[in-house]
Structure formats: structure tokens, C-alpha cells
């Protein structure tokens, strides 16, 4: 049985440790993407909170809102390209599987 008086409070993992600029950027852009697809406002504070990083880590990574938006627009574009590539790959795999099944049916 765990003694609750010794239980540690849950903390945001990234908010209390030093992160590289690249890692803070990665976390923030990923969190912003999730907020965006859920239709939530992209304020600096909201994105930092969702990323689990300090506001100062966020501003260190981007410098300000304008640069964040520029980076986020690139991130979204890259993400949509990757999604399109995966969709195309899945369509090709389905087509291949269908042709393979039909060839096997012709043989039997």
C-alpha cells in the first residue's frame, strides 16, 4: 500500500527541465497542430501549456508570435504532404492486394 503523504505531485514533464530549442519547437508545433485540428485558439500561452513547456521556453524557441505562425504554417504544409503520401501509399497497397487476390482466384 502506498503512503499518500509521500506521493509526489504530478508535474508537466517538460516544463521543469531544460530543453533544447529544437525540442521545444517540436513539442510546440505538435501541440499547436492538435489544438488547430480541434478548432482551438492558438495563443502563445495555450500552445505552451498544451506542449507542456514554459512560456519562456516557447518564446526562446520562436521569438514571438509572427515567427511561430510562419513555422506553424510550414509544419502544417509538411504534415498535409505526409498525410497525402500515406493516403496514396494506402491506396496503392489496397490496389495491389485486390489484384493479388484476383490473380489467386483465377489460378484456383
In short:
The protein is an all-alpha fold. It has four helices and no strands.
Structural class by helix and strand composition: mainly alpha
Number of helices: 4
**Low-pLDDT segments, ≥5 res:** 1-11
Biggest sheet features: none
Question: Which terms summarize this structure?
Answer:
disordered N terminus; 70% helix; 4 helices; 0% strand; single chain
Written description of the protein model:
- The chain is mainly alpha-helical.
- It has one domain.
- The chain is built from four helices and no strands.
- The chain has helices spanning 21-37, 44-51, 55-62, 65-107.
- Helix 2 packs across helix 3.
- The longest helix has 43 residues, at 65-107.
- Residues 1-11 have low confidence and may be disordered.
Provide the fold topology.
Elements: H1 21-37, H2 44-51, H3 55-62, H4 65-107
Helix pairs in contact: 1-2, 1-3, 2-3
Amino acid at each position: 500500500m502506498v503512503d499518500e503523504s509521500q506521493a509526489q505531485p504530478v508535474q508537466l514533464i517538460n516544463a521543469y527541465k531544460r530543453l533544447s530549442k529544437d525540442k521545444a519547437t517540436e513539442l510546440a508545433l505538435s501541440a499547436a497542430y492538435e489544438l488547430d485540428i480541434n478548432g482551438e485558439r492558438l495563443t502563445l500561452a495555450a500552445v505552451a501549456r498544451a506542449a507542456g513547456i514554459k512560456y519562456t521556453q516557447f518564446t526562446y524557441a520562436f521569438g514571438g508570435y509572427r515567427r511561430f505562425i510562419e513555422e506553424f504554417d510550414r509544419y502544417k504544409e509538411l504534415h498535409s504532404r505526409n498525410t497525402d503520401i500515406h493516403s496514396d501509399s494506402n491506396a496503392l497497397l489496397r490496389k495491389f492486394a485486390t489484384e493479388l487476390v484476383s490473380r489467386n482466384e483465377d489460378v484456383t
